Amino acid sequence: MRAVIQKVSRAHVDVISADTRTTVGEIHSGFVVLLGVSHEDTETDARYIAEKTAHLRIFEDENGKLNLSLKDTGGSVLLISQFTLYADARSGRRPSFSNAAKPEQARKLYKRVADLLRSQGIQVQTGQFQTHMKIDLCNDGPVTILLDSHKIL
């Protein structure tokens, strides 16, 4: 499982369909988390990503050091499913997405990550699975972190 975590001062996600644009998730201070699920991922990967996200210390403390987590600051998460994090563009010009999970598996693990974050007291807003979305965010820092549950030591 891969997560791109961006520290933001605000963010919202809109779903685009026909001539309508509807906001489905919105947060103030916190993280936008773009989440990719591979066909190899399990509950263990979901737990790893949720735990790391909840406790990642990338907010400034009183001394200006990146030393506080979402749990410390009361920040929120805007969680967006993004299968393209498993794109393989090493050969040719069109990326392959064969490492991404099928929608049924990805949806289940995506929801699991959201539930695990909520169980830790974190407010979670989400995009809408398998839809065209527009994400508007204001990076704070900027601070962007990449987590990969298959590259843990």
Automatic annotation (TrEMBL):
<feature type="short sequence motif" description="Gly-cisPro motif, important for rejection of L-amino acids">
    <location>
        <begin position="141"/>
        <end position="142"/>
    </location>
</feature>
<comment type="similarity">
    <text>Belongs to the DTD family.</text>
</comment>
<dbReference type="GO" id="GO:0005737">
    <property type="term" value="C:cytoplasm"/>
</dbReference>
<comment type="function">
    <text>An aminoacyl-tRNA editing enzyme that deacylates mischarged D-aminoacyl-tRNAs. Also deacylates mischarged glycyl-tRNA(Ala), protecting cells against glycine mischarging by AlaRS. Acts via tRNA-based rather than protein-based catalysis; rejects L-amino acids rather than detecting D-amino acids in the active site. By recycling D-aminoacyl-tRNA to D-amino acids and free tRNA molecules, this enzyme counteracts the toxicity associated with the formation of D-aminoacyl-tRNA entities in vivo and helps enforce protein L-homochirality.</text>
</comment>
<dbReference type="GO" id="GO:0000049">
    <property type="term" value="F:tRNA binding"/>
</dbReference>
<keyword id="KW-0820">tRNA-binding</keyword>
<keyword id="KW-0963">Cytoplasm</keyword>
<comment type="subunit">
    <text>Homodimer.</text>
</comment>
<dbReference type="Pfam" id="PF02580">
    <property type="entry name" value="Tyr_Deacylase"/>
</dbReference>
<dbReference type="GO" id="GO:0043908">
    <property type="term" value="F:Ser(Gly)-tRNA(Ala) hydrolase activity"/>
</dbReference>
<dbReference type="GO" id="GO:0051500">
    <property type="term" value="F:D-tyrosyl-tRNA(Tyr) deacylase activity"/>
</dbReference>
<keyword id="KW-0694">RNA-binding</keyword>
<dbReference type="InterPro" id="IPR023509">
    <property type="entry name" value="DTD-like_sf"/>
</dbReference>
<dbReference type="InterPro" id="IPR003732">
    <property type="entry name" value="Daa-tRNA_deacyls_DTD"/>
</dbReference>
<protein>
    <recommendedName>
        <fullName>D-aminoacyl-tRNA deacylase</fullName>
        <ecNumber>3.1.1.96</ecNumber>
        <ecNumber>3.1.1.-</ecNumber>
    </recommendedName>
</protein>
<keyword id="KW-0378">Hydrolase</keyword>
<dbReference type="GO" id="GO:0106026">
    <property type="term" value="F:Gly-tRNA(Ala) deacylase activity"/>
</dbReference>
<dbReference type="GO" id="GO:0019478">
    <property type="term" value="P:D-amino acid catabolic process"/>
</dbReference>
